[in-house]
Amino acid sequence: MLIKDIVIIGSGNLATNLAFEFIKSKKNVKCIYSRTENNAKILADQCNCAYTDKLDELPKSADLYIIAVKDSAIEEIAGKLGGLSGIIVHTSGSTPMSVFPDSIKNCGVFYPLMTFSKADQLLFRDIPICIEANLSGKNIDLMRFAKSISKNVYNISSDKRMMLHLAAVFACNFTTFNYTVAEELLQKNDLSFNLLKPLILQTAKNIMIGKPAEHQTGPAVREDEIVMRKQVKILSDMPEYKEMYQLLSKLIISTKHKK
Amino acid sequence: MLIKDIVIIGSGNLATNLAFEFIKSKKNVKCIYSRTENNAKILADQCNCAYTDKLDELPKSADLYIIAVKDSAIEEIAGKLGGLSGIIVHTSGSTPMSVFPDSIKNCGVFYPLMTFSKADQLLFRDIPICIEANLSGKNIDLMRFAKSISKNVYNISSDKRMMLHLAAVFACNFTTFNYTVAEELLQKNDLSFNLLKPLILQTAKNIMIGKPAEHQTGPAVREDEIVMRKQVKILSDMPEYKEMYQLLSKLIISTKHKK
After folding, report:
1. 0.90 exceeded by pTM
2. Are the Cβ atoms of B203 and A171 closer than 8 angstroms?
3. Separation CA A110–CA B243 (nearest Å)
4. Nearest CA-CA distance, residue B61 and chain A, Å
5. Which of A55, A161, B78, B222 lies at 20 to 30 Å from B121 by C-alpha?
């Protein structure tokens, strides 16, 4: 079965990026749901489609219902979608497919491994999409659909997806926090964050080749105690960042010796 | 005075990148020093210049001597370079200019804010170079020289450079470690690190616009306790990464509430 008619449940960062991607690739977004009617309306107006804040008013005949809401709301929403014949998927890295109740005949997962914001519409072509489905026929449909927007589509089980999401927290969320700390340190000293941007881009580009550990530089991996002591001293009035510095430096050294 | 003849003291990642950059931009690299003669020879052969493992055999008439060695060796080397008339600079973020003894007439700092490896020859055009000199005339010479290879050259004092280096440790070294942990988690679960590469690049690109904190996503900033508990549980057999996860998640939450 070819997936054509889509309902998007949610109006946040991912829902917005998905909606625009589907419009761009000429899919038929039939309806946007949000528990806040105005949020549904804002996105639906941009997509030129219907909207609702009532789950029982969703179109019954869509091919695909994409639940793109916060993890803690998936179960409740899924519980209200029984009886639909289309495939119902969620988009969460850390939620197993077993979140769906038996009342849902065709269910699965459509997890794009990316960080999304409403401000920036990403191209899905290079974004890995991890799919899973309860029935092999639906898996084929979902795979074909995902491949129509991305060239990197993978069958990934709930267990592995959870590992992938955890790895993404380290690689993306914790990294964004590193940038935040760096910016705060610079700002306190009237230095522009722009100074760090070439380094940040290069650090990300480096790991495209080889193993990340091969690109480890800095005082910790050199075990340069003098520099580390100086830097800990600078951080003495920011105890939370001092603790972070000491822990990460310790882990960089111990990981180096583990190899 | 126009800086033409250059001596490079060191043969590591930065020394190698500098040597190739100078050759490319038609500067005259006169000699490479390394305490390990063979390392000096390998780099000098590629630069078609002289080499030595004896500091007292360095050419006396160069315009610029660049000390690109590990921080802990700078002081000892600088102590042996008295009497030269050229400008002697080190390249360290965390070492103040005061490391140079009085016997050195013209001294300064030439600090490229970047992570270097021998495997990858970087273009210096976009790399910020932070300079400092003990005499204003020499500062002008050094500024002109740095501007001949980079379009981002700044006068930065020793105190501010130390802050910049500390910020770079967070933004680059700790980030590379995040990538290392992510790769280890994936490898243990037979998942390819390639899956994370688009996310890593996008995470770096995101901070080119706005403040890094605006790009913070993930379970911690959403204060999604259920996902965080699941992820901590997955890490229960890797106590060091569990500690890192818990600390960083806690800091992401407290930083969010600080704003």
Report:
1. yes
2. yes
3. 31
4. 32
5. B78
